[in-house]
Amino acid sequence: MIPRGRRARIAFSDSAAKQLDTITSEAELHALDRALVVISVDPDAGELLSGDNSGPRLRQYADDVERVRLLYWVTALKTVVVVAFIEV
Fold first, then answer.
1. What is the pTM of this model?
2. Residue 42 to residue 59: CA distance in whole angstroms
3. What is the rounded distance in angstroms from the CA atom of residue 79 to the CA atom of residue 60?
4. CB burial of residue 20 (10 Å; 0-12, 13-18, 19+)
5. How far from the centroid of its chain's Cα atoms is residue 82's Cα?
């Protein structure tokens, strides 16, 4: 958990940045922004996806109301959340 009052910094992979560039709807941008706020406040909010421990542990955050899904990982220091995939 991030210390109270502090948010994780979010960085986008190249692939996610390209996906972000294709979003043109104001409603989709608003929905994405809300999801990013959630994981910046609590990077562990998403569900841990199964897999081996050879690389970063992927997490999935899904908001069925806003219809947003993010795949991301959290660095060892839990200061940066890197978004790997965006689905709005």
1. 0.81
2. 12
3. 17
4. middle
5. 7
